[in-house]
Amino acid sequence: MATESRDFTEATETDRELTMSRAMVEAIAWEMRENEEVFYMGEDVADYGGIFSSTTGLLDEFGRDRVMDVPISETAFLGAAVGAAQAGMRPIAELMFVDFFGVAMDQIYNNMAKNTYMSGGSFSVPMVLTTAVGGTYNDAGQHSQTLYGTFAHLPGMKVVVPSTAYDAKGLMHSAIRDDDPVVYMFHKRLMGLGWMPSPPGPKTGVPEEDYTIPFGEADIKRHGSDVTVVTLGLHVHRALDAASQLEDDGIDAEVVDLRTLVPLDTETILDSVRKTGKLLVVDEDYQSFGVTGEIIARAAEGALDDLSAVKRLAIPDVPIPYARSLEDEVNPGTDDIAAAIRELHE
Amino acid sequence: MYEQMVTARYYEERLQEEYLVGKQPAFDISAGPIPGELHLAAGHESSGAGVCIHLRDDDTVTAPHRPHHIAIAKGVDLKKMTAEIFGRETGLCRGKGGHMHLFDPDVNFACSGIIAQGCPPAVGAAMAAKKRNTDSVAVAFLGEGAIDQGGFLESLNLAAVQDLPVVFVIEDNDWAISMPKDRVTDVEDGSRRALGFDMPGERVDSDDAVAVYEAAERAIMRARDGNGPSLIEVQVHRRMGHFMGDAEAYRPEADIERAKQRDSIERLADDLRAHGVEDDELDEIRERAHERVDEAIAWAKEQPEPDPSTAYENVFTNPPAQAATDGGANTSDASSDGDEGGDQ
């Protein structure tokens, strides 16, 4: 696949391009150098460097005390991250596939997410839970889910979903410095892995110095006047491709990349919807009770008079199938997005 | 130790009285000055006191859903804890935790109302202590009904493989709600589970607070000296139902009688008398404890209910700045507690 990169609004003046995984690791390494209370633990994060290259090279620089392989026991080590965070450290704990959350969800939503509230604010849980999401590589129902909505639905954790290297680095700096639990969901297809090629797009210019991207600020990845497409993760790139395809037909789509689900930048969505009057929400998570419904509800609450048409594309409430033709059928593709935009524009 | 135990027992007796106010004759769990469930620990006092007497404020304790005797022994602020149980604004958790979710950062005490799920955070506190090269330790308490949970077993393994300074304390009261121990495990001595993780395991029978003290001393010193985790199982007794309002139809009367006969507090008093402690002195300790408890309860009852608007605070330590436009009321406290910082 092509590795050509794009120049997004925020990809600032730098010729240096990084893959998303390298950008993430750069932020982690910077924070670990600055603050010795930051450490990383998870399965296969030390010698292997993370199955999806989320920690490549960290072991060499920081050693096993700070880049820790742990037994395959998510309840124990994610809960240990909660305990270490409550003790004031800043652990980053990796849940290898988001699909595995079920074996450890008690620690995630009953301890990590609630202890700040249940303690009346006397305890903070400054940890980052990193996890790989997404399909498009035919790994079937237990290794291809996206589950953005599951985590965003439960109060007490901030939920981050980068789509480019630039965003991945800035959001990681913000995540590690945040005093609250942050779930940092990276899409495997965007990481720049040799064995799972990325589309052009996520590899962007990335400044060498540290910088933060505040949570709750969506990024307009393409300005347009006809239809608003709100999306996140991999589907930012599919939406951009769809928008390019439609240019020749005179349809000018705006693509809003949410970047964080909690907090959610409702204002940017509303501003865009007020401008275009038409809203398409694209999500790789299941359709019902999820991100698409939430965005449309907020648009309806805040800009109902400006809305003339609404549509959503998401996984149509089936587990992710294995066979290529089946997965392609349910996962919204560029053509699906283009068709939906076209339909809204008519 | 005796003082902590009589404080805990009297505290629970007083809570029981207060709990029943407004809930009789027809039991309504949400009525009265203490809302919600109430799990009393009468009969468990030896474990909390015998273990926590070896701990410092910088040592971490995680307690399960039956936490009062452990909290008292760890030195959790009794007044604020009581106010929390009464659901008051000045409670430990500003009325957001309640009796199963007590948190006191001053003495590093936390709870989880889900069984065995306090174990992993205790392992994490021990991990933090080791990384910081301090000699503080962590203790996770759990009931015998929790020893089949993955969270417990995974925690033993992680603590063992990383040689972490953590002690797991099983309080065996023979009952997991209505399920007797022999119907949930074939291993009578729960401390033998330690063998599977190559760590020391020790069981203390007969509600013997002195024996708990000695076993805990061995385990905690071992952890403090950098020699890794241990498991202790303490035989205690549940003198009441699983929760207040539990009629215990499943529990043979003989068992209840037996529980009442084997009492760790009476036993410790006998031991103390045998070592020459006068009755007067024991009475004095008891009176002091009762006074402290009565004072805490009286203070708590005078405390104001939380302002309803505070329900939206403390979701985050660092609330999102744009919360006002975020559609959700849950993040609207930017001004009130946005600057608390991450470390306690």
Count of DSSP-assigned helices of chain A: 12
CATH class category name of the largest domain in chain A: Alpha Beta
Order of helices and strands of chain B: HHEHHEHEHEEEEHEHHHH
CATH fold description of chain B: Rossmann fold
Principal-axis shape of chain B equals: globular
CATH fold-level topology of the largest domain in chain A: Rossmann fold
Low-confidence stretches of chain B: 324-344
The CATH class of chain B turns out to be Alpha Beta
Oligomeric status of the shown chains? heterodimer
According to CATH, the homologous superfamily of chain B is: Thiamin diphosphate (ThDP)-binding fold, Pyr/PP domains
Largest sheet composition of chain B? 6 strands, parallel
- Compute the number of structural domains of chain B: 1
The total domain count of chain A is 2
Q: Biggest interface: chains and residue counts? A: A-B, 57 and 61 residues
Q: C-alpha Rg of chain B, in Å?
A: 20 Å
The CATH architecture classification of the largest domain in chain A is 3-Layer(aba) Sandwich
Low-pLDDT segments, ≥5 res of chain A: 1-5
- Average pLDDT confidence of chain B is 90
Structural summary, described in words:
Chain A: Residues 18-193 form the Transketolase-like pyrimidine-binding domain. Chain A: Keywords: Oxidoreductase, Thiamine pyrophosphate. Chain A: GO terms for molecular function: oxidoreductase activity. Chain A has 346 residues and is an alpha/beta fold. Chain A folds into two domains: 16-203, Rossmann fold, CATH 3.40.50; 217-343, Rossmann fold (3-Layer(aba) Sandwich), CATH 3.40.50.920. Chain A contains twelve helices and 14 strands. Chain A has helices spanning 20-34, 58-62, 74-86, 105-112, 115-118, 148-153, 165-177, 234-247, 266-276, 291-303, 324-330, 334-345; strands at 17-18, 38-42, 67-69, 90-97, 128-133, 158-160, 182-187, 204-205, 219-222, 227-231, 253-257, 260-262, 278-286, 309-315. In chain A, the strands form three sheets. Chain A has a seven-stranded mixed sheet, with helices on both faces. The longest helix of chain A is centred in the N-terminal third of the chain and has 15 residues, at 20-34. Mean pLDDT of chain A is 95; it is low at 1-5. Chain B has 344 residues and is of the alpha/beta class. Chain B has a single domain (1-304), classed as 3-Layer(aba) Sandwich (Rossmann fold), CATH 3.40.50. Helix content of chain B is 38%, strand content 10%. Chain B contains eleven helices and eight strands. Chain B is globular. Chain B starts with a helix and ends in a 7-residue tail after the last helix. Mean pLDDT of chain B is 90; it is low at 324-344. Classes of the chains: A alpha/beta (346), B alpha/beta (344). Chains A and B meet through helix 3, helix 4, helix 5 and helix 10 of A and helix 5 and helix 6 of B.
